[in-house]
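Notebook, p. 212. Picked up where the previous page left off. The plan for this session was modest: take the two constructs that came back from the sequencing core last week, fold each one, and keep the raw output in the notebook itself so nobody has to go hunting through shared drives later. Recording the first one now, exactly as returned: residue sequence, then the structure token string.
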Amino acid sequence: MILIRTLIVALACATFSPSALAAEPGFDPVTEDVVVVDRQFPPTSIEVAIASDEATMHGLLYLTHGKGPHPTLVLLHGFPGYELNLDLAQALRRAGFNILTFHYRGSWGSEGIFSILNARDDVAAAVRFLRDPRNPSAARIDTSRIGLVGHALGGFLALEAGAIDQDLSCIIALAPANMGVMAEAARSDPEYRAALEEESGRLGPVNGVSGEILVAELLSHPELNAITLAPQLAPRPLLLVGASSDTVLPNAVFHTPLTIAYQALEWPALRVVLMDGDHSFSWNRIALTRKVTDWAQSSCAAE
């Protein structure tokens, strides 16, 4: 009986590494909860305030189990951000990653004004927040293993930030937009420009801008083209996922040109996937989560 009680106490107090938990036979972070929880350093969620150019952005930091430090991914939503992909955040946390999700300036209650360039800078501010030793959770974050996961606009921002910040360890882009391609189309086709202004004007929880302002910003910055980013992104791990039935950002215009440009490089760490799904992967979320989580464990968590 004494031996049993001693074993129970030891299990309750032990610090378990996420890699060990993820490697346990039969444990599936995509569909199962962690069997043994480190009670001293349990999974938890912390509300955070992130400064970006004197404005405060609202975010949530999902901390994984164990003392760490752990690899950490920044999850970037699209425009305006109705689909947050938090099912990915939960699975990745079970797989041993910390996840930071936040709202860009001027969106969903975050202070400031939304713009494409501001959102790009907001991603950099979020990464700085994770690297800051004053962050209350800094001890549980491995600053040498910080990566980005982005969907739609967030996918473009992940590629853009990854090209700028060479210390980011990995990039995942899900049905990414390409702002340079949209700018070229708006410049050459007045009907497309009008439609883009109307669609962008349905802003919902976004402050300080209009569809006309956002499109004018795109036209002023044709260099925001994800196709040109390949040399700056390589040779780091990159997962590029397209959706075959995407009507928001059609494959022929967005995913296929990126795939051709990126695959033209000698880039062993690049993986391109085309899934059967719509823009939000609505009918294959488990399959998407499986691909993202498995790839992240093999490509974003390496020591």
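Okay, moving on. Second construct, recorded in the same format:
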Amino acid sequence: MIKVGIAGASGYTGLELIRILSRHPEVEVSILTSERYAGRPVSSIFPSLSGWVDMEYKNFLPDEITDNSDLIFTALPHKKAMSVIPGFLKSGKKVIDLSADYRIKDPHIYERWYSGIHTSPELLNSAVYGLPEIYRIEIRSASLVANPGCYPTSVILAMAPIMKTDLIDKDSIIADSKSGISGAGRTTDITFQFADCNEGVRAYNIAVHRHIPEIEQALGILSGEDVKVSFTPHLIPMTRGVFSTIYVNLREAPKPGYLLEIYKEFYKDEPFVRLMEDGKSADTHNVMTSNYCDIGIKVDERTKRVVLTSAIDNLVKGASGQAVQNMNILCGFREDMGLDTPGIFP
């Protein structure tokens, strides 16, 4: 049994962490912080947790968090996370960070895309990128795990098996992704209010989204060379889910079923990756509230392209579920512990 603290536990990712960990058999949630709701019962803010969580939110006091935790999840805004994580690590605590502060290895690239100075660049090389399907061995011995973003998770898992092959033109990757509104966080920004979002779909941050360097870094490491990706995110009027369609030029058309066999071999032992058969598309309906990533593969012989589809729940496999998966690996628990439930449908 380990004691777990969550710093920043009143946003959507914090709430999802509480929901998942409340039924984890090897975890005691020991402290939850929220600057906005300090002193108030968690269930008074989130009635969905009534009967499951009998705790109050605490003020953010780093010493109190370290005194009451063996492992700490930081669900804090970008830039704020790196102001407290070095202290947690010096106290001997394991940290799983859900911000972007330790995902990108080059501090100059981080500073360019996140518009600020990185205050603990010495930790970037030791932070392990928390995509278990790629970095499971490194995660087991990590002190700091940088939990991936939702869009990168959907794109990287869809692309990983073919990045190490010579089947594709790696300069031709186009990723078109769509996210539910919860991906923007629990915010009062007018852009994400019902009347502005409902019955409309729009692209945003075209060619400048902060997840681009994260995607390019991961795919570049897999392929052994620099990779450029054309990435366009879209906001779609649903609560949860990320759906990505990725187009890549083929150097030559493979034999029927060959790509699917590559994917089956790559993901044969992965508990949370499911492959669609016969060129069928992934569907966000089938992964909602689950930690699964569903991937579809279709070769367009006419255009000599492969079209990949992937679907995840942005708050689970795209954030808090993957963080718990990383915790399970880090602590030597069964990897699917607390996560072994199907999605809900419809």
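Notes on construct two before I forget. The chain has a mean pLDDT of 96.
Flagging for discussion at group meeting.
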